[in-house]
Design a protein that fits this description.
This protein is an alpha+beta fold and 213 residues long. It is built from six helices and eight strands; from the N terminus they run E-E-E-H-E-H-E-E-H-H-E-E-H-H. The strands form three sheets. Strands 1-2-3 form a three-stranded antiparallel beta sheet, with helices on both faces. It has a three-stranded mixed beta sheet with strand order 4-5-6, with no helix packed on it. Strands 7-8 form a two-stranded antiparallel sheet.
Length: 213
């Protein structure tokens, strides 16, 4: 959660509807670390629906013999919207519900919401790690920051640059066997890119031509 223009408690009825708390929904592939989609706005069903529809369009179509698996936190918005978008025969969904007080996790409950997840480990640790990475690198996400986002458009642009760098520029280590290490970007692992991009390429590229947006 970040703050747009002012804190939620200071928002007045005459302020733009975007003012106050601004939430960013993110999704990524656990195996490769590829960011798939994001959406920013109020923590309401409409923002979540935009996010999950963007994710659906960015991914390969699932089939009964090739299901898409979803793991989320305890936000109950996901359940109804996933059921609207995906056939339950082509997807499975599990979530982790945490009870938190201060900075401590008091309780953690793991649930299979629908589909068969036997043999699969329901976990959100990877996306939580990446969300922490966003907080470290994008100033408005820093805890107790004074750098509030001045516009939703610029806020989303910052996130898009971060996602591009993660997917196309930053290399991840892959263990091949026990000793050999291969370094590739998430986009290379997923077969979207053939090489490690540079910032010069990013600044000069035509995004639509390269099919990266």
């Amino acid at each position: 959660m970040v703050i747009y223009q002012k804190k939620e408690k200071n928002v007045k009825p005459t302020d733009p509807s975007e003012c106050g708390d601004c939430w960013t929904y993110t999704s990524l592939k656990r195996r490769s670390g590829l960011f798939i989609s994001s959406s920013s706005g109020k923590r309401i069903e409409d923002t979540c629906k935009v996010f999950l529809n963007k994710q659906f369009k960015a991914m390969d179509l699932p089939f009964p013999n090739k299901k898409t698996l979803f793991y989320t936190d305890g936000n109950f918005q996901y359940e109804s919207i996933l059921k609207e978008i995906y056939s339950e025969s082509c997807a499975a969904y599990g979530r982790i519900i945490k009870s938190i007080k201060g900075n401590s996790v008091l309780d953690k409950r793991i649930e299979t919401v629908f589909g068969d997840l036997k043999g699969h480990r329901i976990s959100t640790s990877v996306v939580e790690g990446y969300n922490n990475k966003m907080r470290q690198r994008i100033t408005p996400f820093c805890r107790k920051t004074a750098a509030f986002s001045k516009s939703l458009k610029s806020h989303i642009s910052k996130i898009n640059v971060f996602i591009f760098a993660n997917n196309f520029i930053e290399k991840k280590k892959e263990w091949i066997g026990l000793k050999n290490i291969k370094e590739r970007t998430p986009a290379m692992i997923e077969g979207i890119a053939t090489h490690v991009w540079t910032w010069k390429e990013f600044l000069q590229c035509n995004a639509s031509k390269h099919n990266i947006i």
